[in-house]
Predict the 3D structure of the following.
Amino acid sequence: MAKIKTNEHAEELLEKALDKIFAKKAESALKDLKEAYAIDRHNPKTVSALALCYMMIGDRPKAIEMYKKSIELTPEDTRQYYYLGRLYIEENKQVEAMSIFSTGIYKCKEKLKVKPDIDTYIDLAKIHAFQNQHEESVLTLFKALRLDEGNYETYRMLTEEYFNLALYRESIIEAEKAIKLNDKDHEAFLYAGLSYHKLNIMTRALEFFSKSLALNPAQPELKSLHDKIIELKSQNGPTVEEIIYFSKQTDRHRGTVKWFNDENGIGYIKLHDGGSEVFVHYLAINKDGYQSLYEGDEVEFSIDTAPTGRIAVRIDVLPSAVSKIKNGRVKWFDEDRGVGEIILENQEAVLVHYTAITTSGVKSLAVGDAVSCEIFDTDNGPQAFNVKPARASHAALIEDQGDNKFGGRIKWLDKSKNIGIIEEDNGHFQAIFKPGEALESNPGIKSLKTGAKVRFGVVDVEALESENVKKAVNIEVITNE
């Protein structure tokens, strides 16, 4: 009877201590936990709480001792491997840390084989992250998202991991989701601010830094950065990136891309009216995913003014006969490595990496998915970027084009040069054609008109590298009005 009362007292001490830990009163909690531990040295909850308490007050040797004991008592509790590994790193015990992290990864994976659960995925992601295995961490978090799309911790971790991978726009997107679920945690605001800072959008960075500091003032490095940005803004005014970010869509202009450098994300556009040139920055391109322009692209844009001169903003790439968008189907995709392969319509196989998928949240593909993408040359050969699900009509075309003919209208004609453009009915693509060939196929028609309704087949013809030029063939004139 006395033993039962003693154990009940230990449980009461533990509950009281946990409340103090959650209130960040670790020193006060420690006294209760020591007393509870003296009563029952084999209660896993008490041992784990004592380890956490020692870690919070900075007594790493004691924390290590208690986490080792906690793992002996409950080896299936995967979170402990992460904390113990961190403590070993902080104590400069690299070998011990690597050993415990490896064991933790193994334990997580074995546990997930039996029953996938979100907490274990998050534990595994944390271990990967602490070992600078940020891609493995992100891919693990995708699996957690599939189980629960409303878990704040998953989004907060994605925010941090995308930042570590220098994927700043993705970091901001996931931070906003985390903040919607929990607006009291300073870390989501912190990483959103750091991402805006990396994008050189200082006004937004300051907004998020201020909110992070309001929630947790004990961030001296962040406070220093915050104050430095304010000082620089007062001296230099808005950055080019800020001008682009906050720009409005005013009068529209058209022009041709003179050149664009993918490495530094800048170039110039030559205006049609007058031939003058304006600077272009990749952030101004209205496109999800990889923002780039091709030399010769026809574009529509507004113009704003920066200290360095005129800049193009709100840039839209206009449709052309030279389509950069290619369609295909997913041949395979490895969710553990985040890589796969797409077979294009011309049967060319290209690699795809999960970061090239434009959707937010879980970035993954299923075998057989119909997708559209752009192809760029990389060190590993041609690779798909800006990968997104194909429109329903495109997906059907990839699957079965029936008689291999499309409907469309003649958009433009130059009879003197025997060249024209047909636009597919849904605006999915344009194809060049020779009016002379069309007339030969339709002997009852003496002259073609702009706007004529036609049915036509398509073949690819050689063009510039990375471009897919479609040519209309076997043209059947339906109406010539």
